[in-house]
Amino acid sequence: MRFAENMTFSNLFQPSYEEVVEGFELKGGWHKKFFKNKNPIVLELACGKGEYTVGLARKYPDRNFIGVDIKGARMWRGLKTAQEEGLKNVAFIRTRINLIEYFFGKNEVSEIWITFPDPHPREFKARKRLTSPFFLNRYARFLKSEGVIHLKTDNILFFEYTQDVIRDFGHELLCAEYDIYGSGFNGDAVEIQTFYEQKWLEHGTRIKYLEFRLGH
Hints:
globular; eight-stranded mixed β-sheet; Rossmann fold; single chain; alpha/beta
């Protein structure tokens, strides 16, 4: 049912692999062709139900938000909420994130949120982590030079791995919090919670947060 309803949403894009690599229609043209404005574009990668995409869109009507994930059934919730609330500054892309650079042109994106992605704890899968050099190099192709990347995770190993990548590859660390709810931290990272984050908090899990810029 959800997959069928997803097909009716005008702000959902789920192109085939061939359509992506041959030239996605909105690459470099999101402002003009879809959002019809010049407002900054913010991505939520591994968006799940799209809590940040929708929550930030409510808070910042002068910005555009795009959630990206491969699981359409989860994404349905964000799509449905955006439609019910008439949020015109929201879109979703159903795709694998290792194809993300095919969807955006140079300097087209102003900010990235990575919210509780799979930490891929086994070392031989480190390349699959969304803050690995493999992925950060892809983001650099479309993220503005002053653009900020936000990471929220419950996983300490993934959190510290990302700090190591930031240091070793000359990126700029702006903020590192081991426990955002216990440190008095203020901002969007504590104002919006995902479905799974709420469950982890109920079990006393500390939520970690990083904010950084890519070195150029």
